[in-house]
From TrEMBL:
InterPro entries: 3-OHacyl-CoA_DH_NAD-bd, 3HC_DH_C, 6-PGluconate_DH-like_C_sf, 6PGD_dom2, NAD(P)-bd_dom_sf. This is Oxidoreductase. Pathway: Lipid metabolism; butanoate metabolism. GO terms for biological process: fatty acid beta-oxidation. Keywords: Oxidoreductase. Residues 196-292, 502-598 form the 3-hydroxyacyl-CoA dehydrogenase C-terminal domain. It comes from the Bacteria. Residues 15-193, 322-499 form the 3-hydroxyacyl-CoA dehydrogenase NAD binding domain. It holds the Pfam family 3HCDH_N. One of its GO terms (molecular function) is 3-hydroxybutyryl-CoA dehydrogenase activity. Belongs to the 3-hydroxyacyl-CoA dehydrogenase family.
Amino acid sequence: MATPLSDTSLSPLSTVAVVGLGTMGTGIAEVLTRAGREVVGIDISEATAVKAVTALETSTARAVVRGRLTEQEREDVLARFRTSTDLREAADADLVIEVAPESYEVKHQIFRALDDIVRPETILATGTNALSVTRLAADSARPERVLGLHFFNPAPAMKLVEVVSSVLTAPQAVAAVTDLAIELGKEPVAVGDRPGFVADGLLFGYLNQAAAMYEAKYASREDIDAAMRLGCGLPMGPLALLDLIGIDTARTVLEAMYAESHDRLHAPAPILKQLSEAGLTGRKAGRGFYSYDAPGGATVTADALTPLADAPETAGRTVRSVGVAGSGTMASGIAEVFAKAGYTVVLAARSEEKAQTAKARIGKSLARSVDKGRLTAEAAAQTLDRITAAGSYDAFADVDLAVEAVAEDLEVKQQLFAALDKVCKPGAVLATTTSSLPVVACARATSRPEDVIGMHFFNPAPAMKLVEVVRTVLTADDVHSTVREVCVRIKKHAVDCGDRAGFIVNALLFPYLNNAIKMVQEHYASLDDIDAAMKLGGGYPMGPFELLDVVGLDVSLAIEKVLHREFRDPGLAPAPLLEHLVAAGCLGRKTGRGFREYARR
């Protein structure tokens, strides 16, 4: 019979057993010992246990060298850690944290054995990120004391800990491990029991989409990873991250998520199965999406798929002058980028006044750069002098490259391209900055579709390094080469992608944002907890709701609708909560209220 919980039955969790001494288990043991806990590390492999001790000795020695520990503190930490291959060594633990392989059978066997070993008041925690905590708890003799305690790798560095309750978990057990997490210097987030919880639930859907994108040969692995690093500020690209996590691990998590959600976005991309079954599981195997210098190595080495640095390309066309169409933030930012790179720029809008306003915005931007020491006053003045404001697109008669940055409306863009077709000289390259509309539809509005290409800049254009270069089936090779050469000159990183909705970044980013909204809509987690989980657990510079409010909920909804319409996937249907907020005029920071409220300026 299970022992009932009372407020007085909880111990301060001073002695902890960690079952499973792989990378995660060893990391958790280090966190606990450095926080003053007595830790017994248990693993069926004596060699693994010895390796865990060696790892702790190495990491603490490094901490001494860096001044983070004294030699005496290091000795105390090592004295608080002992290892065993016998599960009965957990008998005196106040808390047991299981970090065994992601298998119900293995974990179930451990939990049933612990029922006969530990004290009635001991809390049992599983470190799973893919399996049901409720199922493990139901199989235990003490389900009210079973919960999830999900650390992130590497445990000593990552601040997030997800505290996972099942419907059977006693609140006092949750409170005890939450207090422990805080004492360990972590930031605990309370979540319910569903595969992936918050951070991995959002992260692995995104990783799966990236794998499917690569499998479809839509873009190279290098371009997919560069696009997400430079376009979203992520510390790693998705395919490199899959290699780090382990492709087999990712497949296990996704299988568990799909079994519950039946959402095609969670159905593991076939390439994950193929790589896993071939033993190409990522860094630990020395090869996954990329090849590495050795099993367990972190250095990427060239392989058959690595792009050749000196690959021959079709010669591009000469570009000396650039026309930028539009008067908004994006248009002025793009004009500033080209002028800084030495191009003569014509900034044209529907009126002289709008064009002059856009040029004045560039002047203010350049002045800020001077104030911050990033640009000399002389260079700023020269840059501004290269820009001519015009109230008519007739001013584009002599430009070599025309870039439109007008409203994200297909009819508006088609009308503009029809006008550019008449104005621009033969051989001029015509580019659209659309983020979600078909580039070929703009091309077909002209008599020279072979000269039309997508150049998707990111906002703010002067700061963001990425440009998605979008070829249509009609784009000429020398037009593609021209734009790639221009990107080098303006110091932007170009990635190649085909002409389909969302290109690389938006096609991967917005389903992730939509899934975050669904979590809130379903009352699974709060805005604050989800934002914290993705920043602390995923290394994202902004949480999804912070980002949605910055981008604009109306813009986000429009992109979601385009993705849903193009790919016809039910999982891409915009979350009703997003539609409701947009209908209510709550569009984010620009209106003072979106998912959060903001002070009016």
